[in-house]
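tl;dr need the bound structure. longer version: we got a ligand (nicotinamide-adenine-dinucleotide) that a collaborator sent over and nobodys looked at where it sits. i said id run it. heres the input, straight from their email, havent touched it
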Amino acid sequence: MFRIVRKERLNQAVVLFEIEAPFIAAKARAGQFVIVRANEQGERVPFTIADYDAERGTITIIIQVIGGTTMELDRLGVGDCIKDVAGPLGVATEYGDAKRVAVVGGGVGCAIAYPQAKELTKLGAEVDMIAGFRNKDIIILENEMRAVSKELHICTDDGSYGTKGFVTDKLEELFNLGKKFDLVIAIGPVIMMKFICAVTKKYGIKTIVSLNPIMIDGTGMCGCCRVTVGGKVRYACVEGPDFDGHQVDFDELIRRNGAYKEHEKDHVCRLTGGVRNG
Ligand code: NAD
Ligand code: FES
């Protein structure tokens, strides 16, 4: 059992959990993920590790409360335990010798973009962060992101905070201003990662994306998380979740991630008794 030592609501639908998991904390690196089961009968849900502290023996995950399992997790508080946390899984992010990096986060994806910026800054790289949200009420981790970047650019779709527009507009603006990056890391909705890659391809900048296909076992056995990268089938759970964004077939990923949308709408959740919203 994995005890929750800190719980923080970042916005109405996003919750941070710091969980005692000393063996995972000792091995975890930025870009890896865990698979969580809330209870014995629970479904297995992957969450990217948002932070880890080997000394405290804890890892942090940040969840969007969107369906039955995340609602069940949200009912837990400090001192409660999660049945299973398996990991660290996946391959840690490889930065090469990048010195000037743009880290782009979209919405909840900023929870995962933040540790990337933190790790890169620790390694001595100069990091600009671009963080996009629909509006100012759902901005998360602003202070944390500011602390680990040379410049933080917040964008909102409706212009209620920061620059009005998408993260793609801001990245293009920085390129037009003559900013030079030797690596871009993009984490957020698949559509955002697709269009960030369209921008960086024009400028010939290497781009790493963190893919979030549907996963079941997380160990390369079920085939559920397959994605096409450079024309080849790759398994995000064991070969990813990071891939070269210029090689990813995003349209296929969007199609596969939407495969159960209709079933989810009709599915009466056994936990809430209502229709699942995720
Ligand atoms: P959202 O839909 O509110 O979008 C966030 C931002 O992304 C927008 O403000 C905008 O700047 C940008 N964006 C969205 N659509 C765009 C487009 N068509 N072109 C250019 N930019 C666009 O995001 P949300 O509702 O917070 O959802 C976050 C998503 O991130 C979820 O789909 C979740 O699955 C995903 N996610 C991915 C990972 C990962 O590891 N890849 C981790 C956490 C979350
Ligand atoms: Fe089953 Fe990746 S989640 S193979």
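gonna send this back to them w/ a short note. The first strand starts at residue 2 and ends at 11.
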